[in-house]
Amino acid sequence: MQADYLTGGSHAVGDRVAPTKITTSESFKMAILNKSQTEKQNKDYWRTSELLINDALKLLNIKSFDTDVCCSNESVKINNATCYITESDNALESNLWFLSGNPSNTSFCNPPFSKKWEFFQKAVEQVNKWKNQVLMVLPYTPVTKAWHDNIHGQNCIIYVPDGRYQYLLPNGKKSANSCNFETCLVLIVPFKCGNVIINYKRGYCD
Fold first, then answer.
1. Which residue stretches of 131-189 are H helix?
2. pTM for the full model?
3. Which helix (H) or strand (E) covers residue 57, if one does?
4. CATH number at residue 152
5. Which of 5, 44, 90, 114 fits a 20 to 30 Å CA distance from 169?
6. Structural domain for 174, as ranges
7. Residue-wise pLDDT tens digits, 34-69
């Protein structure tokens, strides 16, 4: 079904001006596109819930992380990290994701959603170079090509929760809805183990 002529643009035809014709379906597609782009931008700045952080620390039997490598700015660094790398510092170009002499040899990475696999490959590079560990928060999509191309063949311990975590909005408030995909914690390690999967229950630390 097409809408009548809509205002908002026109083309000259001889001495007359004919309004631009936009169909209802085109308007709908534009709205969906704008919504999708906004959601994509928001996903890049979703923050990590305290429940996920506490579960991760308990699963790894550590008290804190070395470096939070993906915080947009200092004010949103996770509380359980000694150091941080901000968006302006660009962790993808950093040569060191770890502090020397830090008793915790595990850094934390909840990457921007649109660059998750770039950060995964950078994490693998850092782990192999410095022989430390990186725990990443990633969508659990084992049947996808992207998962196969990136995760398979790497040395990772994959912690799979019993349900979805609720992420925080960029302003720190809880979202009205949980994310629409499953989440897992991927520990990239400097020793040979292939892909190891461990299932766990959220609230493990309680």
1. 145-150
2. 0.76
3. helix 50-60
4. 3.40.50
5. 90
6. 44-200
7. 344 445 557 777 778 899 999 999 999 999 999 999
